[in-house]
Amino acid sequence: MTQLTQLLAELQERFGADADAAIGEQALENVRVAYLGRNGEVTKIRRTIGTLPAAERPGAGKAINDAVAAMEERLKAAQAAVESRAVDAELAASIDVTFPAIAPAAGSIHPVRRIIEESCDYFMRHGFAVVVGPEAEPDYYNFDALNIPSDHPSRESFDSFWLTDSVLLRPHTSPMQIRTMQEHRPPIAIVAPGKCFRRDALDARHLFQFHQVEGLLVADDIHFGHLKGMLTGLCRELFGSGQRVRFRPSYFPFTEPSAEVDTTCPKCRGESAEGRCSLCGGSGWIELGGAGMVHPNVLREVGYDPDVYSGWAFGFGVERLGLARYRVDDIRRFISSEPDFLAQLS
Amino acid sequence: MRVPISWLREYAAIPADDAAITERLAMLGFPVAEAESRPTLSGVVTGRIVGLEKHPNADRLQVGRVDVGAGEPLTIATAATNVAEGQVIAVATVGAQLPALRIERRTMRGVVSHGMMISAEELALPAEWFEDGILQLDQTTPLGADVVELFGLASDVLDVEITANRPDATSVVGLARELAASYGVPLHLPRLRDSYDEPEPTGEAPRVALQSTDCHRFVAQRFDGLHVRPSPAWMRIRLALAGQRPINNAVDVSNYVMLETGQPLHFYDASRIRGGTLTVRSAHEGEKIVTLDGAARSLSPLSLVIADDREPLCLAGLMGSASSEVTHSTSAIVVEAANFSGARIRRMSGALGLRTEASARHEKSPAPALTNFGAARAAQLLTEIGAIAYPPRAFGAEIATSPPVRLPLRDVERLLGLTIERERIARHLAALGCTVEPAGGDALAVTAPAWRRDLGIAADLIEEIARIEGYDTIEAVEPSVPPHHISSAAFDRERALAHALEGLGYREIVTHSLCGSAESDVAVEVRNPLSEEHRFLRASLVPGILDYFAANGEVRVFEIGEVFRRENEDVGERTALGFGFLSHRDAARPWKDDAFLRLRGDCETLLRRVTGRAMDASPGDGRHFHPGKRARLTIDGRDVGELGCIDPRTSRALGLTENAYVCLIDVGALPPYATPLYRPPSRFPSTYRDVALVVRADVSARDVERAVAAAAGPSCTGVRAFDEYRGPQVGAGQKSLAVRVTLQRFDTTITDEEADAAVAAILAALGERFGATIRT
Ligand SMILES: [Zn+2]
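^ inputs. structure came back:
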């Protein structure tokens, strides 16, 4: 018995020394396994109990259990010390927080889509739906139904790519006016974004493939003031609350009255000295596109009574808006979509 | 159109501020592309040379005495050689400011000169368009008048853009009328000659035969006794300011009247009209004409010509022949003021590659009534230079007055959202030349002037009212949009795809829809391409994306756009989505490609996000892809797209050093979004078993997974192959697939015995189905 007591005292002493010497959690765990594990020192001692006289066995068991309890206490203290040393070590770290960040592999949507979405969101908040349609369209939707009969001089301003005798790549998104009105009865409140094509030679200001956002509102009491209201709102959405919008008389066969819509040049705000602003050429205004009250012939074509219904329509060039909004120097960048261009505008 | 503001001021008392005029024109619908300001000029007056003698000390100088209307004549020395006593000229007096110099009193070889006799160039006019030396003014010019004021040399010259519907405004008078109406000032029309009470001249009046319906009206008028010489200075200067080179007094009248009234004229040398009859007809095939520009042209019946008995004398509406041109020896002319089909002139101009100031006006189909205005104005100006006029003779359609348009005043308010008094509306319309009468109730009956053919309905008149009232007076208000049932689904779907891909780290690009190669035998060809590079419509997004990779290197990109194919005689069009990236070529394990799996993982995530459904992939046959690395994609058994490694031969041909991985989705084929439903997890713990099965190499992981799931019984909640091995340890033609089977029950904890039984069932089933053995 005294021999066992002696043995346990020695064991605890060795355990204490080993636990104190252990640096790190793994080393401490190794110590625990060596003494308290399934095949550890304590187990070896426990196995000797069987050799003791029966009367001594309960006392021996208690002595061993007491020793184990004391060793586990000691282990906890050692674990606490190890953890505290680890925390101290971690807290001692200090980094250069200005070192360049590690960039994620970020995605982005194209600036053209961003402008389309922001424009559409503005109209959707006001109760408009967004519709999309085909790019290869019969001349009926592109011209005839829009009050542009063949031989009409203004067909020339839509210099188009023809695919068959009667199908062309749409030079504007206005066919969606006809498609929507033929499919639905008034009221109509839509925006129609999409790609368009015109036979313009490619240069810093012209693309032969570009995007438009078309809008159409037809109901029984819609007037020109509503057109001004919505388009002024759109420009403020895209360019900020101080934005001014100007409506100038113009001519389109499918609207009457017709207007060209300009907005304040966001670069010079109309204050460039002697007109050398690279964005607006010094006029102080950026041309956004055409608009107007839907021509009675167009309403009649889709079976609406122009004495009952009135409406407005507009079509804006998206890349043109993009030039102004992002101060892009060359419109071709929208189609070359170079990684740097996309990254800067994302 | 180039318009000197000073010319506009002759017809209407518009404000003195040139910038305000420019702005006002824009707000009337006539934007100014460029406002050219004139240099500062002052101190230049008219004067008459009352004495001229040689300079006493210099052979090349003359000394003149010039009467400038007040005080003693000025002594002025000049080196010019075209001066003579009696001439009226422009004189820069001491203190005058010219573009390049300031005039001082100056001693020239002992003679004190009090000013300078000046040339057109010193007035900032194109020197090559005027006489060498001193500018010659008319004898009737008042002396001492300010030259800048007299000839309108200070005001801006505007380049005005005119819309296609306003041929009447492609003229100085037309624009002056617009400004007069807008500023509420009267319009003063130029003087016309429209009465012929003196006895008629005895010569032969011109005859015109209209053999084409594309000539609507032809006013012909003969003038005799013409002395061809330079025009008076005021006309030459005005033409020069308007960008028209002065030629002689006949040609100048023709150009002047066209600019002033908008009616193009043509003058024929009367002596060159053989047979005396002008015939308007289509040209014969191969018929020849040498036009004024010196070009010999071979014609087709597309061309409309005005011919005498022998040959064409004029390409209608475009340009006359050299042979019938007015020259210095011409004394009798026939003036043509005609109205042609704008479409015919446009086609003809396109076919001949010839566009002139006249054809640009004819193309817009001006009103036939303009012929009378142009002819009467030409008659006035030709009479003023001494020609003897025959009465004009008109051929073709009479001038028809258009029927009045009923304008309900309610409609003005309904369309504009602007209340304007009846009198104000009537005043605006009258100022534009309309006749306005009451039409009962709240309506007006409005008859458009003969020169306006674009005012056929009430909406046309409402635009006129709005223009004159000013678009900026219309208040901007937000409409309340009534409810409707139009769906935004297609747009929402595209947006969801784009944003999900953005989230997966792809950048959106836009590439050309038109490409240079046919790609396939169903490619749609453009009939009138801009260039060979853009002759075909793309049938797939793949070439555009690969070109982008070739140009820009390692990037993850996507594009959403239309692709096209020929379907019989029609054009088929679908919305496509393509996305992908480049990845290193890795030949180490030909049976495994992590880049492919990454792409498929992105695709599965994308389609789950957008459709709420699971996508399935099976071996595919897409033509763009590597034959062993391509899959077709289905959702609920329907094809939605394909993906794979682009055929390495294609990427190598493009110079790519890596392989491209691309997924193509047919956006229209995607099913509608299915909202996922939540299943609460079991309260009982799950357990799993990993099983390594050796099967034939051609047995797909998906088939193994499905067989495992079926064999494992109802408590199996997941099967996933997580490792594949081929090599000597499993033998040729075989592979080892490691599969993790997850088991879980809702009513109790899975026991080890149940799990082991499941594994046994799996081994039995797969052994039977695939001859699978367990890998040891
Ligand atoms: Zn600017």
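The longest helix of chain A spans residues 57-91. Chain A has a mean pLDDT of 92.
thumbs up if we can close this ticket
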